[in-house]
Design goal:
Distance between the termini: 18 Å
Shape: globular
Largest sheet: 4 strands, antiparallel
CATH topology: Alpha-Beta Plaits
CATH superfamily: Uncharacterised protein PF12112 family, DUF3579
Amino acid sequence: MVQLDFTRLILKGMTKDGNKFRPSDWAERLCGNLCTFRNRRMYYSPLLRPAVIEGIKCVIVDARLNEEQPKILNDVVSFAEKNKLVVEKES
């Protein structure tokens, strides 16, 4: 397990050069890695969930994801880096 320098990570649906990230359902797809289904309904994990912040689609990543699913955290961080997404860290 890696020591993290954040308690929460916010991946914004905006690239570092200011363009809106596509496809429009990227956040839901990314968070689908940890969702569960009950009664024909999708429930997102509190560790990895989509959100809209100031009109921008985002993914909120809880640092506890590193304890429970370190591979998924690595995949999410790699996705953000590869696609040059704006990322904010909260301590």
